[in-house]
Amino acid sequence: LQTKEPEAVVYQDGEEQGRYPLSEDTTVEIRQKDNSYNILRIREGKADITEASCPDKICVNHRPVNRQGESLVCLPNRVVVEIENGVESEVDADTN
Q1: Contact 12/32 with Cβ under 8 angstroms?
Q2: Do 67 and 87 meet the contact criterion of CB atoms below 8 Å apart?
Q3: pLDDT tens readout for residues 25-73
Q4: Cα(first)–Cα(last) distance of the chain, in Å?
Q5: Which backbone phi and psi does 59 adopt, to 5 degrees?
Q6: Which of 28, 72, 76 lies closest to 53, judged by CA?
Q7: CB atoms within 10 A of CB 48
Q8: H/E stretch holding 46
Q9: Of the four listed, 27, 60, 72, 75, which is most buried by Cβ atoms within 10 Å?
Q10: What is the DSSP code (8-state) at residue 77?
């Protein structure tokens, strides 16, 4: 049984924009048509939104994610970063 490596999948307005393996350190700018943006940083096997133009910064203040099913969400910018193919989370929910 071959398992895929975990990756951060970026969705914007519900449409997939890109897939980034957690094994490769990278920084991705997710920019919307109205020039709002989110900066996704993958480092040491974890995905984190480090900067965003949204007013509340909930996405920036969320802890980094690396387990299957975990996600980072920026509602004002309509961006979701979801972890796929990783180790399943041991908790049903996380309040940060």
Answers
A1: yes
A2: yes
A3: 999 999 999 999 999 999 999 999 999 999 999 999 999 999 999 999 9
A4: 35
A5: -65, -35
A6: 76
A7: 20
A8: strand 46-52
A9: 72
A10: T
